[in-house]
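User: structure tokens for this one?
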Amino acid sequence: MDSVRPLNTPQSHDTIDAPAAPPARPRPILGRFRFLKELAGTLIFGVAVFVFFQLAIPQSMVQGHSMEPTFVDGQRLFISRVHYMVGTPDRGDVMVFNSPQPREPNEAPLIKRVIGIPGDVVEIIETQVYLNGELLDEPYINEPCTRFKCQDDRWELGENEYFMMGDNRNHSNDSRSFGVVTSDLIIGEAVLRFWPPQDFDLIQ
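Assistant:
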């Protein structure tokens, strides 16, 4: 009986040779020096970011009671140097600075509120603070100032001079005793309270 086999169908005894596989090549291996270089670059970048962060936004711990009730002893703050690199302190800012008359060598920086800025006239009259002739509204103070701590006085602020006072007026060493603070003594503005966690807050 006749049969028909498709032309492209091999018979049972036919074989088809597969093309030879190309020789295996070794997989590329990341060189040891290249890995070390990348690792070193990553570490340097991390250190640079950390140093920049510490320089631009250092941390500070509140010590003492001069800023109560705004801040209490032991709270930790972030202090921004950048704010005063691109601008100047304004009335009401909470500022960290070095004392113009330190009581001891390496005295810790102080934290107070900016009451007067260059060109202002600050006066204490009958225990009340007056700014440029107007009674200053101070809802942030802890308690009324006593006559002993807030004696009548007057300060005219010149260029780059700031008048600083603590919110706890009866327990604060500030511009009433050591005078005005010049811009070269300024460290930065307190911008964030981060410790303890329940007190976390942006500083207005």
